[in-house]
Specification:
By secondary structure, this protein is α/β, with parallel strands linked by helices. Helix content is 40%, strand content 15%. Strand 3, helix 5 and strand 4 form a beta-alpha-beta unit. Helix 10 packs across helix 11 and helix 11 packs parallel to helix 13. The model has no long low-confidence stretch (mean pLDDT 96).
Length: 405
């Protein structure tokens, strides 16, 4: 008998994690170019269109600043341009990344108040309203995630703005859109958002390296009242540069810009942002349909119970330890599919950490990519003997087919 172990993982490995997302070949090919001229020519000429398209993605007519950074850099930029050390910020948390932004604010010397709703609940607006009503104007900014990548909760930003307006509170509204931008409907101007933070590596389909901060005219005015702003993170010259280098406070991330230009062409001009939101919604429902069926006969349980509270870019799943890690390892080694690890649901040292995973379905994804991922998971459940109900793939297929009929 042969000692060879058969593997079906040869071929292109598929990364089904919630960022970095799958990079389109067109984006990668656009980046595969000689170093461009940074003094004159096409790179400089494309910036007006790039900025305009970034505003279209966030649905704003206001301002955007581009940073050579990841999303954490965007967090820092949003804070140093709006509040000063010692001032109070309120952070609404229902996941690891909301808490991460709070920790970042603490590190910058801000007076941070965390309102934690747990990891299996969305916001309690009565509680938020009561806190803001009782505030004497000390809270200068509210920090929150539109979709927290760790739990996959999607929070109602428009409803939060209505609370602020109803109680007459003047705090700036700062929103982390790192997981949601380009995937879930986000209306910066219509929802009254003052600052939106995102990055290139998720719904915008470009390698990690560009942080993005959109900011309102109100936030711009707030910045002018600050006694000091970090020269590097200062968004004013980036949003209104007198010279090309001021977009980036130095050397431009040339090849990331080439890739982002191609990604925005695909997202804004070819598909259209409304259609991209609709595509993500259908593919998310297909994932949820499969998970719902699996869970009828075993331990599969979506982190967010109510579909209305789920983000369309990522789905958090609990499956019981050690099944999460066992499934992820088996899929990677045998089928060439990598799922996301569970983040922040339990401490990393807790054995239950091995009972969670996340499915990324953001950015450059279509039906066969998502259905293929679900087929791989279904295969892994069978190979590992993890209890589950049958019919998950049929349920997911019907969701996709239903949109085409």
């Amino acid at each position: 008998m042969s000692d060879l172990k058969t593997s079906l993982a040869a071929g292109r490995h598929y990364l089904a994690i919630p960022g970095p997302s799958v990079m389109p070949d067109r984006v990668l090919n656009a980046m595969h170019a000689a170093a461009p001229n940074i003094y004159t020519g096409p790179l400089l000429d494309m910036m007006d269109g790039l900025v305009s398209d970034l505003k279209a993605v966030a649905r704003t007519q206001q301002n955007v600043a581009i940073y050579v950074s990841n999303g954490h850099g965007g967090w820092e930029a949003s804070l140093v341009n709006t509040v000063t050390p010692g001032e109070k910020v309120l952070v609404l948390v229902n996941g690891m990344f909301g808490q991460g932004w709070a920790n970042h604010a603490t590190g910058l010397g801000l007076d941070v108040e965390v309102m934690d709703f747990g990891k299996r609940a969305t916001w309690d607006f009565d509680r938020i309203s009561a806190r803001l009503t009782a505030d004497n104007g000390a809270i200068k900014a509210i920090l929150c995630a539109h979709v927290d990548t760790s739990t996959s909760y999607k929070n109602d930003i428009a409803a939060l703005r209505r609370v602020l307006d109803r109680v007459g509170h003047d705090a700036l509204l700062l929103v982390d859109c790192i997981a949601s931008m380009g995937c879930d409907r986000f209306e910066m101007d219509a929802w009254g958002v003052d600052v939106a933070v995102s990055a290139s590596q998720k719904g915008l389909m470009t390698p990690p390296g560009i942080g993005l901060v959109w900011f309102s005219d109100k936030a711009a005015q707030r910045q002018k009242s600050l006694k000091q702003v970090s020269p590097y993170w200062n968004w004013a010259p980036r949003a209104n540069p007198e010279g090309f280098y001021q977009y980036f406070n130095g050397t431009a991330p040339t090849h990331h810009l080439l890739g982002l230009r191609e990604a925005l062409t695909m997202l804004v001009h070819e598909e259209g942002i409304e259609n991209a939101w609709a595509r993500h919604a259908v593919l998310a429902r297909a994932v949820w349909a499969a998970c719902g069926v699996w869970g009828q006969g075993g331990p599969v349980d979506m982190q967010v119970p109510d579909a209305v509270d789920r983000g369309h870019a990522v789905t958090g799943v609990s499956i019981g330890a050690p099944n999460g890690t066992a499934l992820r390892d088996w899929l990677s080694e045998n089928l060439g599919v990598t799922l996301g690890i569970g983040l922040g649901i339990v401490p990393a040292g807790d054995p239950d950490w091995h009972g969670h995973f996340r499915i990324g379905h953001m950015g450059h994804v279509n039906a066969h990519m998502v259905l293929g991922t679900l087929g791989a998971i279904d295969t892994g459940l069978k190979a590992l003997g993890i209890p589950h109900a049958q019919g998950a793939l049929t349920a997911a297929s019907r969701v996709c087919a239903g949109e085409m009929i």
